[in-house]
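A student in our group prepared the protein record below, which I am reviewing. I have pasted the whole thing underneath without changing anything:
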Amino acid sequence: MTIRTYRELSRLETFEERFRYLALRGDVGRSTFGFDRHINQQFYTSREWRQLRHHVIARDLGCDLGVDGYEIHGQLLIHHINPITAQSIVHSDPDILDPEFLITTTQMTHNALHFGDERLLPRPLVPRRHGDTKLW
C-alpha cells in the first residue's frame, strides 16, 4: 500500500487532483471496524484526538480537502489519509495522531473518498452574469 502524506497532497492545487490522490475506491457496505467499532469510538472521543482535530481544522482553514474556496459551513470530519485499523489504535501507532496523515473534509467528500463515487463531490459555484434569466 502506498503511504500518502499531507505534504504531497498540498502540492496539488485543485480539489479534483486532491480527490484523485486520496481516493480509496472501497466497497460500499464493507465494514471498517466491524465488531471492534467501540475501539475507534473510544479513540475519536479522546482528548488527544480532539486537540489534534482542532489543529488540523485550523491548518486547513476549515476548507474541504484544504482547498481554498471550498469552505465547510456545516459539519466537518478529519479524514485519515491512510486508513487506520483497530490494531493501529490498540498498539498506539503514532501515525494515527500525526497531522501529516490527516485532512479536513465534509461527510459527502469523505464518503466519495472511501467509495470512489465522484458524483458525491461538491460542484463549484457558477458565477452569475448579467442577463442570466434562470436561477441556476
